[in-house]
Amino acid sequence: MTTLSPVQQRFILHWGEMGTRWGINRTVAQIHALLFLSPTPLPAETIAETLGVARSNVSTSLKELQGWGIVKLVHILGDKRDHFESMKDVWQMFRIVLDERKRREIDPTLAVLRECIAEAEEDKETDEYTEDRLRDLHGFFETTTAWYAQVRQWPSGALTKFVKLGAKARNLLGITGG
Amino acid sequence: MTTLSPVQQRFILHWGEMGTRWGINRTVAQIHALLFLSPTPLPAETIAETLGVARSNVSTSLKELQGWGIVKLVHILGDKRDHFESMKDVWQMFRIVLDERKRREIDPTLAVLRECIAEAEEDKETDEYTEDRLRDLHGFFETTTAWYAQVRQWPSGALTKFVKLGAKARNLLGITGG
DNA sequence: CAGTAATTTCTGTTGTAACAGAACTGTCAG
DNA sequence: CTGACAGTTCTGTTACAACAGAAATTACTG
């Protein structure tokens, strides 16, 4: 894996690019892509060589990926170096990422909204219009997170079944109008 | 609106912070927050003063927001300046943002994956393992986007109903096992 | 057809995250 | 205890997006 095939290279570069668009460090995303494609766990040194980045950079990025919980440190018999492997189950991987982003970003946002609304209720320096908009937003996040909490428990095959049901799904649920 | 209440200020700052975490420019997000809270459309000049950023920066950011389709240029009778207003329907707003991100990021990713898989099938320099992983990923994005295409058509109230159904929903849909 | 106000585009600056390389720490073998 | 290697942390550099201010453009108005 020290040298990459054109296909591997293309995917890793694209994955890095996508990372930046979603607020993920490019190198972090590239390392994740590399590990995701690798059939075996890789040591940090190999990752650095393959991607052409500094060893120190790899160390930091791996810490980040472990923090997300999608990369794990493993040991290989007869090799004292740390090796790293990516989670391979795509569904579980994205579930973890979504959970984590909810925890890091959505939950704090909900907290801020609640506090803002509470404060706006008291001192009437903040106009009513602002309060209404914040309530809307709060309601939106409340509903969508509750909805996600439910869907995330579906087995991965369930989404496929749901898709196949098509428009029938809404009828089955009795969800009709606005 | 030239001067902000503490609540408004807090929300705008937080929204800007959240923006950066999701790959949205801080100022762009702040302007969006300001317009979202504003009961009336605002001219660029006012936005610049209120947020304390350069007029030119506001101009660029407003273009960006209009590009996303969540801010519109409007005119006020008797005022020749351009005014700007944010979409207020939170559900529609996020639907638009999701659509746009799908178009800009998910669709190109699907294209890359398809091309990578096609190329991997031909020249066997790329090992089979890589091909399998790319297929997994492609399947994942295919399913989730098809699923989103369906859910996005639900009226906003439908999600609330779905949440209230709780675990019953899966039974109604006949979605049982993995 | 000036002259003014509004807006956009251009250009140089700045702040910050990402980074490389060095220094440091820890671990193990002999 | 010493040397070699793996891994982490620190420090200075770099690259780039974000930005302010100036210049240019556009749209009116009298």
Shape of chain A: extended
What's the helix-strand series of chain A?
HHEHHEEHHHH
The helicity of chain A comes to 55-70%
Distance between the termini of chain A: 53 Å
Nearest-angstrom radius of gyration of chain A?
22 Å
- Quaternary organisation: homodimer
Q: Describe it for me?
A:
2 copies of one chain form a homodimer. Chain A is mostly helical and about 180 residues long. The first copy, chain A, has 2 domains: about 80 residues, Winged helix-like DNA-binding domain superfamily/Winged helix DNA-binding domain (Arc Repressor Mutant, subunit A, Orthogonal Bundle); about 70 residues. Chain A contains 8 helices and 3 strands; from the N terminus they run H-H-E-H-H-E-E-H-H-H-H. In chain A, strands 1-3-2 form a 3-stranded antiparallel β-sheet. Chains A and B meet through helix 1, helix 5, helix 6, helix 7 and helix 8 of A and helix 1, helix 5, helix 6, helix 7 and helix 8 of B. Chain A binds a DNA duplex (30 and 30 nucleotides) through helix 4 and strand 3.
